[in-house]
Input
Amino acid sequence: MRMMRLLMIGSVLALAACSGEKGVRVLSKTGDGPDEFVVVPGKPLVQPENYAALPPPTPGGRNLSDQDPLADAVVALGGSAAARSNTSSVGRADTALINYTSRNGRQADIRRTVAAEDEAFRVKRGRFSNIRIVRQDRYNELYRRETLRSYDEWWRWRRAGVRTPAAPPGE
Output
């Protein structure tokens, strides 16, 4: 009986040890390992029809066998590869939208700024969140106060006298 009890406890502990959750919500850095998305295989080599018509090589320039994922995606969706030669260009349809959204100015390095502010927020809010007996979802724990509770907000607007056509799904 005692042996059976020890065996059950051991199997439960072994099973619990295998339940480590990895993924988007694990906020700790695991190291600077390789990035498998940086490696893009080249296009197959083809023999040109005329070697004399080839452009002269340019150091640091593009190769004919280099991948261009953006141009390939445009072609796959029915667009023209020639129209997508400059990856920083904006289409005519999107120019008005970009001009309107940047009418009050825009910050060129906004992504780095937001990432730095978010890192500072997580460090400030998560100082003692590492001290846990059981693994928890740290993402929800750190951002709990920043979440909009839709049902509470709906009631707040209802009490203020604003017509609200429908309630959000129950939480």
Remarks:
- The radius of gyration is 27 Å.
